[in-house]
Structure formats: C-alpha cells, structure tokens
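Hello forum,

I keep getting stuck at the same step: I have a sequence, I want structure tokens, and every attempt I make locally crashes halfway through. Rather than fight my setup again tonight, could one of you with a working pipeline run this one for me? It's a single chain of 383 residues.
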Amino acid sequence: MKTNKHTIKQIQKLKKKKSASKKQILQKRLATITNKRPKAPMSSGGVKWKGPAAFIFSLVFIILAVPTIIVVPFISNSEVQSQSIDQESEAKVATTELEEDSAVEVAVMRTQTDQIENVPLEAYITGVVAEEMPVEFELEALKAQALAARTYVINKMLYQSEEDAADVTDTIQDQVYKNDAELRAKWGTNYNYNMKKISEAVLATKGQIITYQDKPIDPQFFSTSNGFTENSEDYYINEIPYLRSVPSPWDEASPYYLDQETFTFEQVESALGIDLPNNKQLVIESTRTESKRVGQLNLEGNTFTGREVREKLKLRSNDFTVKQKDNYLIFTTKGNGHGVGMSQYGANGMAKEGKTYEDIVKYYYKDVEISKMDEAVPALVMQ
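Reply #2:
Ran it on my machine without issues. Output:
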C-alpha cells in the first residue's frame, strides 16, 4: 500500500504523542513512590504521612528505636542492682570491722528473751545509735551520739557490781539497743544504706570516750529541749560540773517541741495520789528552774517537783503550764525528755550549721575532753 508524505508525518506525530503520554505516566508513578508529589498541608500534629513513605518511616523507626527501648530498662536495672550490691558489700565490710576490732564485749540483757547477749563493743554502739537517734540525722550528730553511747556503757561497766550478770539492759533504763538481725527486720530494703551510714559514724569515733578530769562522764542525753538544757541538780539530786544548763535554740525545729495533754480530775487524782474538789477553780502555782522548767508545782495545796508530775502523768517534759477547764486540766509542754546533757535535735541543728561532733559534745558537756579508751580506761580494755 502506498502512503504519501503527509500521511507519514501524521503517523510520526501520533507515535510521539503516545510516547510522551507513557513518559508522563511513568513520571507520575515515580513521584508517587518517592513522595515527590506536592506536600500535603500541615496539621496540628506535624507532617501528614501517607502511603509507602509512612511505611518506610515506620520500618526505620522500628529498626532504630525499638532496640533502644528494650536496652534502656535493662541497663537501668543493672545499674540499680549494682548499686544495691555495692551498698550491701560496704555494709558487710563495716559490720565485720565493727565486730572484729572490738577489744571489749558488752553483756546486754535482752528483755524479750530474758537472756544475756555478749556483743562486741562497737557492734553494740551501732545497735544503740540506730535506735536512739533518727538515721536521717546529720552524720556529725550521729557521731556525737556514738561517742555519748560508748562513754555511757564504758562508765557503767567500770562501776557496776560484780554481782550484776549483765552490763546493761536494752531498754530506756540504760540505752535502747537492737542487734543486726532486728535492724534488718526493721529497716527492710533500707538496711544496707542505713547500716553504712550508722557504721560510718561509729567507726569515725571508734575507741573514743568523753572524759572529765581523766574519767569517763555520765553522758546524759535526751530528744528535745525547751530552748535550754537543764542543770543536773534541778532534775536529779547531785550537782555535776559538766552537766550545766546551756541555750539550745535549734530544738524549736523538732516535731516534739510542743505538746498538749488533757486529763480529767479523776486521772490526775489517781496519778498523783490526791483529791481535788469538783466544780471549783483550783489553786495552781509553780516555780521555775534556771532553764525555765517547773521546779515545783502547787496543785490545790499539794506540792510536787516538776519531775514527779512529768513522770507520773507521763508528760513529754517538765516544762509545762497547767490550765483548768471545768473538771479538766490541760498540760502544755515544751521539749521532750529530762533535759539534762545533750539534746539530740540540738545536736542535729548544730551539725546542719557545720559543727563537728567534737564541737557538739564539748558544747553540751562543759569542760570535757575526748580521750582514747586505751589511755583513759586501760584496765577495762585489757580485760
């Protein structure tokens, strides 16, 4: 079949047009795959991902991010476990050192079992500090408590009767004490941290006692003062030169600084062994000691020392005021404890101000020295 030139040109144009159409279709498909088409409008959450691009992004995220998510908790748990092991190791080392380095043993009467437990001195001091002072206190305050506790038991051992089977009890009659197993049960998961801190305080003062004129003192201590400590003769009987009244303003921060108790007339009569007239305004008069505590209380003609009233009514302190409301008596107290010697909350307040345990001890016990046991009491150490 014959074709003219005009027909040939039309056929060539048609082929070019079809070729261009195929090219445009391929370009559009390629743009769809590579996301080169016009960008979608931004939403409040950022770019709007669609189609294969979203799939590719998700796949990259899974490959890179998921292993990180899995590994991070694993690393954190390992670090925590490592820290726990370190603390346990340090606590064990400290406990062993306290037990092995004690040349003296303390015979402790355990009230729950009615048995005597022989405890290495420094291990005993650890058990006392753990019970007698909050573990949250500053380290220097804990050191001061360790020094006072050690001095107390050494002084007791020096002057005890040969007939006494035990050196001390584990109650407030002497010093409250718990052994290692009891502290583990009490502290639980905090045992390692707490034991490390208490042991550090005890080891820092190891072998040291407080002396006055080269003899161990009777280191009285208590929780919280009313702003002053008490002269020994104003609470006890004897005037002791190192147990003098000193200001203790830090105690106002103690949670035990103020307290209030309300008693019926019948409760007061029973505790004090007196009779009070009902429906009458009572005569209530008192004298004060140098430290502003009650020296004597006159209650409707009945006279008591401040100590007697405190102990018989189980008040926190012998610094109290009494108000009557109908047939009730309201006692408002300041402080917690007998007030003689070292205030524990005062010691903590001093430690927070940067004072050392030596500073604290020499503030609350006047004209004392910190001595080595083997020099001050060689006979006891050699036993």
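The mean pLDDT is 84. If your local run keeps crashing, start a new thread with the error log.
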